[in-house]
Amino acid sequence: MANPKQNTDDNLLEVKNLKISFKTDEGIITAVDGIDFSVKRGQTLGIVGESGSGKSVSTWSIMRLLPKNSIIDKNSSIKFQRKSGKVVEMTKFKKNGRELRKIRGGEVALIFQEPMSSFSPVYTIGNQIMEAVLHHRDVTKKEAEEIAVDMLDRVGISNPRQRFKQYPYELSGGMRQRAMIAVALSMNPSLLIADEPTTSLDVTIQAQILELMNELQEDLGMSIIFITHNLGVIAQVADEINVMYLGKIVERGTTKDIIHEPKHPYTQALLKAIPRLDRIGERLTAIRGDIPSPLSRPTGCPFYTRCGKVIPGVCDVKMPESTHLSDTHTVYCFLHEEKDV
Amino acid sequence: MSDTLLEIKDLKVHFPIRSKKLFGGVTQYVKAVDGVSFRIEKGETLGLVGESGSGKTTVGRSILRAIEPTEGKIVFNVDGEAFDLSKLTDKELRGFRKHMQLIFQDPYSSLNPRMTVRDIIAEPLVAQKLAKGGEVDERVREAAALCKLNLEFLRRFPHAFSGGQRQRIGIARALISRPQFIVCDESVSALDVSIQAEILNLLMDLQKEFGFTFLFIAHDLSVVAHISKRVAVMYLGQLVELAPTKDLFYTPKHPYTEALMSAIPEVNPDQEMNPVHLAGEIPSPINPPSGCRFHTRCPYTKDMCKTDIPKWKEIEDNHFVSCHFANTLTLKGAEIPTSVDAN
Fold first, then answer.
1. What's the pLDDT band for A4 if we cut at 50, 70, 90?
2. Which of A151, A270, A296, B92 has the smallest number of CB atoms closer than 10 Å to its CB?
């Protein structure tokens, strides 16, 4: 169901029919339900969604970093092009096997939301960057130290030599997030997964981190998957956006498509629900109801229980197919089905 | 001013740091709040913004005396009488608590998992002995209905609810004693976008109906702009600017406010973000910089900023700022986005 006109040679990562479930005491929960997406070389893919939409699970699965009770469906495919040019199927690797460990950190890196808890408190920052470098690169300790200091300098940490010897508690939140980016980038990965990297930071620091990521992307030519629930942030960093709801992608398009011409009722509702500076004091439009529990997923379109434009007898019965509105813009909604090009 | 509900005068909250030696005693103070003054009018929402570590939460909590203020006056006008909260004894304060409440940030940890929703909402009434027997239930039902909670929920425990519903339980608990003043400390920050909109609407509706006065503390500037009539900006324990919302956002007068505004990510891919770079990190509140506290990071700093403390002055109607050059600097506000139509 991926866009037919898309040039697949360009894609660093291609995910097809990804389905992930979790075995729990209350039954099987499907967190991601058959989604396709791809990441182009040197581009940023933004994934937007609320809690429970499966945005983190679907991307963490690329590195196979899911809890033990997770099941990746056997028809799912995650194709990743390695630095050597070889295309590998990530779902086929043995969990924690050698090749997978080489790719993890070395070629696909991850930064996440909690800069407070993602470092070990008992090792220095420098030690933790060096550990990653020594694992993936064939260098001596002395060289690894140089790489680490250089990387700290590059992400804009002042006095990198001194910071190298400090423990995580001695750094502020913004610094720790920079240090984490330094760890992730010290191996020169071709794909960076950034899972809500700025959510717990102050706006001024958030702005700096976003700028830094942009600069580093230009310098190093890596691709980024940027996961967030903040539409302002995504509008600033992403080339393409996938909107996720309850384990499904409901709309995808270029950033302009999604922000200027949202077609899915969920995307439209999200954009109306955020307070904006040009509409100070205006009433926000909330989305009625709550996100359904993943244990009792609605049949048909996942959004129909909260949708203002629901078509009774259609939306609650089957899942809408993809409708290509343009080369770049795809929506999964019955309202647009007849407009297929 | 007759319609002032709350007046804070030169509020200071200093936390002692004890020496590590056995009998070392207090050696230094963390000056979390260091001389803050403002007024809140009846029925308005005052927004309070600032980076983490600026002292905004401490201001909110010390007004409620959940944290003891070190110095300063907190004058609360109720039924035509003025009380200085900072002078009340514990006993007097207990009788006063019904007038002021707090809505917390995290709807998961702020509700006791072992109490039913009914008991959680009723707790302020019971603790302050404001109602007995059947009246308690009646008021619980009334508060729950105001917050659009299903009355059947009252017998259940908090674990059965989603984040948005939990936050509504927290709001019902805050409303039940019919307070005049409510501190919302990051009350919508932990919620999803669609739920956040609903809670913001609920707070605004309740305010319209009952004339509540809010102090709304948050780090999300767009949320604060949306709900507040006036907004105060805090930096390192002091206010740097206070103005009606639109004035503050579109025509800021303090360089720090300008930097904050420039860092708001716009929901518009055509409008590139151009954040003002602040040098370095927020300094330590143990030894705040001399002169203007912002001078170490200010892009417009001059010699005089290092030595002279700027005065808090009203440079336009209702627009207060503490900067030596507030009148001469031309600062940029938040971009007014060209209308992006979301259908």
1. very low
2. A296
- Does the distance separating the beta carbons of A50 and B263 come in below 8 Å? no
Give the ipTM: 0.84
Q: Give the β-pairing of B4-18 and B319-321.
A: unpaired
CA–CA separation, B321 vs B310, rounded Å? 9
The alpha-carbon gap from B164 to the nearest alpha carbon of chain A, in Å, equals: 8
Give the closest of B52, B269, B341 to A256, CB-based: B269
Measured between alpha carbons, how far is A302 from A316 in angstroms, rounded to an integer? 8
Domain boundaries B4-228, corresponding CATH code: 3.40.50.300
User: d(Cα A49, Cα A248) in Å, to the nearest integer?
Assistant: 10
Contacts (Cβ under 8 Å, ≥6 apart) of A115: A173, A176, A177, A179, A180, A200, A201
Are residues B193 and A50, on separate chains, in Cβ contact within 8 Å? yes
Total H helices, total E strands in chain B: 10, 12
Of the candidates A203, A270, A281, the beta carbon closest to that of B260 is on A203
Contacts of A158 in chain B (CB under 8 A): 280
- Supply B8's token pair: 């804070």
Q: Which residue of B has its CA nearest to A282?
A: B226
pLDDT digits (tens, 9 = 90+) for A268-299: 999 999 988 877 778 898 888 878 887 888 88
Q: How many CB atoms lie under 10 A from the CB of residue A326? A: 13
Going along chain A from its start, the domains and CATH numbers come out as 41-66+92-107+192-339 (3.40.50.300), 115-188 (no CATH)
Q: Which residue has the higher pLDDT, B9 or B191?
A: B9
Which of B194, B249, B256 to probe by mutation at the A interface, max A CB count within 10 Å? B194
State how far the alpha carbon of B176 is from the alpha carbons of B45, B136, B146, in Å: 19, 9, 10
Smallest CA–CA distance from A277 into chain B, residue: B222
Domain boundaries, chain B: 4-228
A211 CB neighbour count, 10 Å cutoff? 18
Contact B339 A229 (CB under 8 A): no
User: Which residues of chain B make contact with A205, given a CB cutoff of 8 A?
Assistant: 51
pLDDT of residue B297: 92
Query: Which whole number is the average pLDDT over A58-83?
Result: 92
Provide CB contacts within 8 A for B289, sequence distance 6+: B283, B295, B296, B306
